Amino acid sequence: AAEAGGREMAAWARAVRGLLLDISGVLYDSGGDGGVPIAGSVDAVRRIKASGLKLRFCTNETQATREKFVKKLQGMGFDISVAEVTAPAPAACRILKERSLRPHLLVHNDLVPEFAEIDKANPNCVVIGDAAENFTYANLNEAFRLLIGMEKPVLISLGRGRYYKETDGLKLDVGAYMKALEYACDVQAEVVGKPAKMFFESALAEMGVPPQQAIMIGDDIENDVGGAQRCGMRALQVRTGKYRSVHSLHP
Amino acid sequence: AAEAGGREMAAWARAVRGLLLDISGVLYDSGGDGGVPIAGSVDAVRRIKASGLKLRFCTNETQATREKFVKKLQGMGFDISVAEVTAPAPAACRILKERSLRPHLLVHNDLVPEFAEIDKANPNCVVIGDAAENFTYANLNEAFRLLIGMEKPVLISLGRGRYYKETDGLKLDVGAYMKALEYACDVQAEVVGKPAKMFFESALAEMGVPPQQAIMIGDDIENDVGGAQRCGMRALQVRTGKYRSVHSLHP
User: Fold this and answer.
1) What number is the ipTM of this complex?
2) Is A116 in the same domain as A175?
3) This protein's superkingdom (chains A, B) (predicted)?
4) Which of A106, A137, A144, A145 to mutate against chain B (most B CBs within 10 Å)?
5) Nearest C-alpha in A relative to B180
6) How many helices and strands in chain A, by DSSP H and E?
7) Smallest Cα–Cα separation from A114: which of A65, A70, A48?
8) pLDDT, tens digit, for every residue of B167-207?
9) What's the CATH number where B223 sits?
10) What percent of chain B has pLDDT over 70?
11) Under DSSP, is residue B200 helix (H, G, I), strand (E, B) or coil?
12) Predicted TM-score of the model (pTM)
């Protein structure tokens, strides 16, 4: 049986044709100082590309435009381009256009340019991202009042992460604030980004690899690993980023 | 049958011996300017007291000490004293002492004196109230980090309201922020205040009236009406405060 298992595993490994890589917590640790690359990760990206495997970066990053984010990573030495990155904001823009939604944005200042071509007058939905310092009491009340005033409140959340690690410690992620608005307005947010199935599917389509032949690599057991598995992919959890073993979970 | 129903109702009305009155949204509308009394409410309190009915004020107010809050209401003309008010902070202090919990406080500055006699060194729980302007990104991250760092995170929430009405509009209440921390830390908050059964029971005990002979009057269908009913009381929802008819719910 062990031998059969080994053969199966080897057959599966040979079948792998594409990798989806999370960025924050896998390639680098973010932070107010711009963050630092995780040891070995610049070289790992280079080796994956040299191996002939297809590679796509699949991130829930919403603190900057893809352009700015990619430039930062290139500055750290990563071989990465904007066209290789699947991120929530462009996916949200497609949905907003399709459904004629005019968003009120509760997002990071640096993400706003991603919505440049979207009509934002007289909003009929709220889009929430990892707004960081923009998560003020006043801004949350404003988003809440708009939502509760809508005939049919629509809340779109760019990811639903609980928290993430920056160089100076753990920070609440967009999911916590999404929950606050969901509860106050008695609505359910529509999540754009990991772990939404549609998000992984579009990343796979962009890479041209079916789920059975792809692996997702991330540091988040829910958004990276769980989401990818529900999509029919295999997934690996790295022990960097927010990863904490059961023992270190409550230090 | 209608006649029997009428007789039943009349018998019940004769049996009523005590009233629990919510304050914000029932007696006055709060606001940055101190708020304004709701028309007729000063007189209503006077008449209830003159009628011989027992009366107790049952509030989730946590933006001020009971002393300061009562002084404000007295200034508006209400016949009210500190001893007549059941509020979350004193109830929380009893729990903290009983269980040797040392709180980190995420509350309004004006509520802090209620916790003067509580040991707050090296916190082993977080107490969250309606912190209003203190609900900053930095303060929420701080409370989150303390909670997630605890071996067994304990989150005590002073009420679980969704929102309330101030003179300048609707504001997110403590419940929204409680949900954010619950989600981020995967814990369930212990609610002190309405709609917790124990909170109504202590108000009834202080008034010396059993639930079957008491009515709760409030503007919140969940925290006032639902909570009181689950406690065996009858309840009335006023149409002031945050009350919104089905038609006006989504203007």
Assistant:
1) 0.87
2) yes
3) Eukaryota
4) A137
5) A176
6) 8, 13
7) A65
8) 888 999 999 999 999 999 999 999 999 999 999 999 999 99
9) 3.40.50.1000
10) 94
11) helix
12) 0.87
Q: Which of chain A's residues have a Cβ under 8 Å away from the Cβ of B173? A: 184
In a domain, A80, yes or no: no
CA atoms of B68 and A235, how far apart (whole Å): 57
Quickly list H helices, A51-87.
66-75
B142 and B103 in one domain?
A: yes
Give B140's contacts (C-beta < 8 A, 6+ positions apart): A135, A172, A176, B106, B177, B180, B181
Domain end marker among A154, A169, A191: A191
Establish if B77 belongs to a structural domain. no
Contact present, B103 and B123 (Cβ < 8 Å): yes
Distance in angstroms (rounded) separating the CA atoms of residues A194 and A242: 16
Q: Is residue A31 domain-resident?
A: yes
Of B36, B17, B15, B19, the closest CA to residue B27 belongs to B36
Same domain assignment for residues A122 and A102: yes
A219 found inside a domain: yes
Check: CB of residue B127 under 8 Å from CB of residue B103: yes
d(CA B84, CA B75): 16
pLDDT per residue of chain A (251 residues) written in tens, 0 to 9? 556 667 776 777 778 999 999 999 899 988 777 889 999 999 999 999 999 999 999 999 999 999 999 999 999 999 999 999 999 999 999 999 999 999 999 999 999 999 999 999 999 999 999 999 999 999 999 999 999 999 999 999 999 999 988 888 899 999 999 999 999 999 999 999 999 999 999 999 999 999 999 999 999 999 999 999 999 999 999 988 776 654 444 33
Out of A141, A162, A183, the one facing B175 most closely (by C-beta) is A183
* Residue A103 phi, psi (nearest 5): -85, 145
Q: Hey, of B106, B141, B221, B244, which one would you mutate to test binding to chain A, going by the most A CBs within 10 A of its CB?
A: B141
Residue B52: give the domain boundaries: 11-60+195-249
